Amino acid sequence: MISYRCKQCGAQLELGSAGGFQCPYCGARAFMSDAEFKGNQEFRKKLLAYYKAKAGEKENDYSGDTLWEELGTATYPMANGKNLTLSYMDRYHYPEMVCYLCRESVVYVFDREDGANAFMLGLSRLSFPEADVKLSRCFPMLKSKIALDAGKLCLIFTRKPYFYPAEVFAPFASEHLAWVISRMENICCALEYSELQHGDITASSLFVNSLTHEGMLFGDWRNVERKHSNQDLLDLRKTAKSVAENIHSPALLEEFLLSEPEGDAFQDFGAWDKVIEEGFGGHRFVKMK
């Protein structure tokens, strides 16, 4: 039988955020045993659904993302006769394409529809191993597309809270540069698995979350091609050096960034993992201040 009463003060327990119950009066915590869960399968399902929903709310909560600020606006006439106005923090110009860093979106405006089609085709070529489907979170997620006037097309992708181009947080101290490199290695491994070459890994196309140490690769997906070189791994090293505060310490970090890539992304990740273990003393989560 599940007890919802606090054993300390007898008050009604409330669902907490750590996977159990918490007393709103004395702060005591309580957790269900396996036996209690097994006897209450329906409640278990509801509890798991509750925590999943709470996690989703937190992931999409922009209220604490105070770094974003409006530094400009751009207006485009839409095919339906109305105007699309974008408020952005930064924008990046590419041939026949502009990328806008908006509050809840990363917005691409293409001069021609076939440019947008090529972009989406590049993304569609990604594939992920069944054992690591979370890698899909490292790549743009389309929210909507809007037909603009004069044959232009707008693609709107999700910008999750706290995700910004790596250049925004530069320069990175070595202990933080380490996780940025790790995320780029993860991304390169996903591209390797898909047998793709992105060709646009830069300090502005790599988005990172300084709180969770996650990464996403935006940039230009129109020229994605079948892998034929280690250009992405070379770009990884170039990008890391461009945002580094100091690449000389530890010595293994500098050695890695000045080295030629290993045979493929999986081997390169192994070489980088050795730097983490021997140069940084293992995998540690170091909060950015």
pLDDT average, as an integer? 89
- Classification by helices and strands: alpha+beta
Query: How is the CATH topology of the largest domain named?
Result: Transferase(Phosphotransferase), domain 1
Strand content: 15-25%
CATH architecture of the largest domain: Orthogonal Bundle
Spatial arrangement of strands, main beta sheet: 4-5-6-7-9-8
What is the CA-CA span between the terminal residues?
46 Å
Query: Could you state the CATH homologous superfamily of the largest domain?
Result: Transferase(Phosphotransferase) domain 1
Any low-confidence stretches, pLDDT <50, length ≥5? none
**What is the number of domains?**
3
C-alpha geometry: globular
The main β sheet shows up as: 6 strands, antiparallel
Radius of gyration: 23 Å
Number of strands: 14
Helix-strand pattern: EEEHHEEEEHEEEHEEEEHHH
Approximate helicity band: 25-40%
Tally of DSSP helical segments: 7
What's the CATH C level of the largest domain?
A: Mainly Alpha
Keywords: Metal-binding, Zinc
GO molecular function, one term: DNA-directed RNA polymerase activity
InterPro entries: RNAP_P/RPABC4, RPABC4/Spt4
SSE map:
Layout: E1 14-15, E2 21-22, E3 29-30, H1 34-38, H2 41-59, E4 72-77, E5 83-94, E6 97-102, E7 105-110, H3 113-124, E8 142-147, E9 153-158, E10 163-165, H4 174-193, E11 196-197, E12 206-209, E13 214-217, E14 225-226, H5 231-243, H6 251-257, H7 265-279
Antiparallel strand pairs: 1-2, 2-3, 4-5, 5-6, 6-7, 7-9, 8-9, 10-12, 11-14, 12-13
Q: Can you give a write-up of this model?
A:
With 289 residues, the protein is an alpha+beta fold. It folds into 3 domains: 14-59, no CATH class; 72-158; 163-279, Transferase(Phosphotransferase) domain 1 (Transferase(Phosphotransferase), domain 1, Orthogonal Bundle). 31% of the residues lie in helices and 22% in strands. It has helices at 34-38, 41-59, 113-124, 174-193, 231-243, 251-257, 265-279, and strands at residues 14-15, 21-22, 29-30, 72-77, 83-94, 97-102, 105-110, 142-147, 153-158, 163-165, 196-197, 206-209, 214-217, 225-226. Strand 6 (97-102) and strand 7 form a beta hairpin. The longest helix has 20 residues, at 174-193. The radius of gyration is 23 Å and the shape is globular. The model has no long low-confidence stretch (mean pLDDT 89). GO terms for molecular function: DNA binding; DNA-directed RNA polymerase activity; metal ion binding. Keywords: Metal-binding, Zinc.
